[in-house]
Design goal:
This protein is an all-alpha fold and 109 residues long. It has a domain at 66-103. The protein is built from 4 helices and no strands.
Length: 109
């Protein structure tokens, strides 16, 4: 994947390939929309695939709709990180210095 992004002509070729495939798919769907397949029309298949895409997008849509809940969760996590940082800072600045000032624990080398 990185090679496709690093080499300019390969990147352009990849984009052209994707665009060509997309245009071919759109033309095929347009031309065969009402064609009957053994069990379904092309339109029915496309609508089914569209339903799958919507179903896959629902978690993202849920996060957007319930943005306030997500923001609350982010704020709580940031608050927990700040509290944790304060505790670690107190330990390093005060407790560690007290320990070093008093020397070693008896029985330890």
């Amino acid at each position: 994947m990185r090679t496709w992004l690093l080499i300019p002509w390969l990147r352009a070729f990849g984009i052209a390939l994707i665009l060509t495939a997309a245009v071919a798919a759109i033309v095929a769907i347009y031309n065969w929309w009402s064609e009957t397949l053994p069990t379904a029309t092309v339109g029915q298949i496309v609508m089914t695939l569209f339903g799958f895409v919507v179903a896959l997008a629902l978690p993202t849509i849920y996060r957007i709709v319930y943005y306030r809940e997500s923001a609350t969760r982010v704020l709580l996590n940031v608050g927990a990180a700040i509290v944790g940082w304060v505790v670690v800072w107190i330990h390093i600045k005060i407790i560690d210095r007290l320990f070093l000032r008093h020397g070693r624990v008896k029985g330890q080398k």
